[in-house]
Amino acid sequence: MSDIPPASQDVVGDQPIALEDVVDRDALDDLCKSIHALFGIGVRVYASQGALLANVANELELCRYINEVPGSRAACGATVSAAKSVAPGDDGEVTHPCFTGLAYHIVSLVHEGRRVGRIVLGPYAPAGLREPPPSLAETDKRLDVVQASELAAKVPRVKQEALQRIAGHLKETLELIIFSSHKAWVTSKLHLYSVRESYRELQDKTTRLEQTLTRLKEVDRLKSNFLATMSHELRTPLTSIIGYSEMLAEGIAGELAPEQQEYVRTIHAKGEQLLRLIMGLLDLSKLESGTMSLRQAPAQIGPVLNEVITTLAPVARKKDVELAIDSDGVPCELAADAERLRQVFINLVDNAVKFTPKGGKVTVRARVTEGPALSGGGDDDDDSAGAVLLAPLLKQVEIRVSDTGIGIPAAERAKVFEAFYQVDSSSTREYGGTGLGLSIVKRIVDAHGGQVSVEGNEPNGTVFVVTLPSAQTRRAALPSRVPPALA
Description:
alpha+beta; Beta-Lactamase; Heat Shock Protein 90; six-stranded mixed β-sheet; five-stranded mixed β-sheet; 18% strand; rod-shaped
C-alpha cells in the first residue's frame, strides 16, 4: 500500500519518513474517536508501508452477517484488501465501492509534499443507496438478500459533499499533528546526532591524546636513558680531568708559574661544576625511572644540617653572606636516607647563598612540630583533606631555609620545582644553574613521605619549607601513602 516512491527521503538522516515513528499515537486515537462519535463512520489510519496506526470502528451488523457466509466472507476480505492498497488519484482522494453497495473513502496524508500515509473512512452507505446491488447476491447463493437489505438500511447514509468535508477536516487536522510530531522528532534526532557527533569527536580526541601520551612517554623514556647514558659516559673522562688538574695544581708534574696555576685552578673549578651538573642529571634520571634506592635508617635532622652548614660555610664567607642555623634541639627520629637529605639541604642552602647579595643572611631553622600524617606527594585530595580533621596529631620535623635575597615572584613559585625550569631563563641571566636542583629536592622529599613548598620572606627574600614525617608518623601512615622507595 506504499504511496511513497523508494527514492523519497526524509530531511533528517536521508531516510524515508516513517509515520509510525513521528506521529503522536494518543492524539491520533483521540481525533479518530471524536470523528467516529460525531458521524458514526469508521476511521482507520495507515502509514505509508501499511502499518495500522489507528482503528476506530464498530463492526456493522451487515458486515457481521456477510462474514457468516463463506463466499461472501471471501469477497469481503478481498474488498477490504483492495481498499487498503488502492492509490488515491492526483487530488489525493478516491472512493472505493464495496459489493454490498457500501463504500470506502481513501484520503492521502501529505507532509512536505510527500505522501506519508492514508486515511480510510468507512464502510458507509452513500446517500443515494436504496437497495443492495446484484453483486451482493452473486457472492454466495446461500446469502439471504432480503435480510442483507434490511441490515444495509441501518448503515448511516452520508452525502458525498459531507463526506468530503469530513475527510478534508480530518486530513488537515492529522497533517497538523504529523507536522508537530515530526518537528519534535526532528529536534530529538538532531540532538541525538549532535550528541553522537560530540561523542565521536571526543573518542577521536581521546584516541589522539592516548597516542600522544604514549609517544611522550616513549620520548621521556628515551630522554631519561640518553641522559643517564651520556652522564655516565661523560663522568669517567671528567673525573680524570679533575684528578689531573688537582695533581698539576699540587705541583706533582713540576712547579707552575702563577699564571699557569690560575689556569689549572680554573680548569679544576669548571670541571667540578660540570661534574655537579652531570651528577644532577644522573640523579634526575634515576628518580624519574624509579631506580634510585634510598637507604632507610634511623636518623636525626640536627647532624645532617650541621654538616650542610659546615660544607657551605666557606662559600658563604667568600660571598660575605651570613650563614646561621637555629634548632630547638628536640630529638625526633626520622626513617630516612641521611645522605639524600644532605643533598636536599645542600641544594636549598647553596641556592639561598647564591641568590643573596653581599651582606645578606641565610638562616636554617629546624623545629619539631605536631600535625596530621602527611600525604607524601603534596597533592591533597578531598578524602585526605576531610580525614585531616579526624587524624591524630603526630610528630614531624619542619626545616625552613630563609634568605634575604632577590626572592621568587608569587606567580613563579609553583613552577620552580619543575625540571630545567628557571625564573630568569634569558640568555643574559645573572645567576647560573641548570634548573635541576629544586626538581631533585622535591622528588627526594616526596620519596621520604614529606612535603616541600616555597614562601615569600618579608620584606624580601625566599623561604623554602621542608616537612619530614617522624619514623612514628611513617609507621602510622596508610600503606598506599608510603613511597615505594622506602616501603
